[in-house]
Specification:
The complex is a heterodimer of chains A (118) and B (110).
Chain A lengths: L2 E4 L3 E3 L5 E8 L8 E6 L5 E7 L6 E3 L7 E6 L4 E6 L8 E7 L13 E5 L2
Parallel strand pairs in A: 2-10
Antiparallel strand pairs in A: 1-3, 3-8, 4-5, 4-9, 5-6, 7-8, 9-10
Chain B lengths: L8 E4 L5 E6 L11 E6 L6 E4 L13 E6 L2 E6 L8 E8 L5 E3 L3 E5 L1
Parallel strand pairs in B: 1-9
Antiparallel strand pairs in B: 2-6, 3-4, 3-7, 5-6, 7-8, 7-9
The chains are: A mainly beta (118), B mainly beta (110).
Chain lengths: 118, 110
């Protein structure tokens, strides 16, 4: 079965960077784009972008252009999301989700809590 | 890309049916049949309940159904149950090959 295991919680200071990993198993990693979605406390879902693990191609939401970089290591079926110049409002749970049939996002990682605090 | 528009809350009684809307533009909801819906209970990850406007993933109850007209997609839940109380989010593919979510609708089962 599809499994996604994300890295552990992070606490960062404003202006720092964070890199979250997402190790996939149970399917062909290079066959499906990996999306990243975040959710601030008490807020809704916010789509951040996707990476094509096969080509490395990316597409980022306008809100994150210039601050987010998505990469992957196909040898270990792992995707990464790095967010720079962190702000207090980047405090959120960050999820990785491989794209499934019909552009749906079916199997979600367990989420990684990133807290930005001084 | 602006977020899709969803009502903040809807409510219904057990056994009733409710419908919630998700309004976008011709660049997202209206332009593609790639609208999906997600159910999220507190403290849990979202769960896909509808994809491609009206298709249900395996294991999702047929009490959940989706439709679309123009720039507005809708999710209908029939035979409301207390376990349906949750937040619901719509999402759409966009003309920029990105995705966009709605702000979410809190469903209360009275």
């Amino acid at each position: 079965q599809v499994q996604l295991v994300q890295s552990g919680p992070e606490v960062k200071k404003p202006g720092a960077s964070v890199k979250v990993s997402c190790r996939a198993s149970g399917y062909t990693f290079t066959g499906y784009s990996m999306h990243w979605v975040r959710q601030a406390p008490g807020q809704g879902l916010e789509w951040m972008g996707w990476i094509n693990p096969n080509t490395g191609g990316t597409n980022y939401a306008q809100n994150f252009q210039g601050r987010v970089t998505m990469t992957r290591d196909t040898s270990i079926s792992t995707a990464y999301m790095e967010l720079t110049r962190l702000r207090f409002d980047d405090t959120a749970v960050y999820y990785c989700v491989p794209e499934s049939t019909g552009y749906g996002l079916d199997v979600w990682g367990q989420g990684t809590t990133v807290t930005v605090s001084s | 890309q602006s977020a899709l528009t969803q009502p903040a809350s809807v409510s219904g009684s057990p056994g009733q049916s409710i419908t919630m809307a998700c309004t976008g533009t011709s660049s997202d909801v209206g332009g593609y049949n790639y609208v999906s819906w997600y159910q999220q209970h507190p403290g849990k990850a979202p769960k896909l309940i509808i994809y491609e406007v009206s298709n249900r993933p395996s294991g999702v109850s047929n009490r959940f159904s989706g439709s679309k007209s123009g720039n507005t997609a809708s999710l209908t839940i029939s035979g409301l149950q207390t376990k349906d109380e949750a937040d619901y989010y719509c999402s759409s593919y966009t003309s920029s090959s990105t995705r966009v979510f709605g702000g979410g609708t809190k469903l209360t089962v009275l």
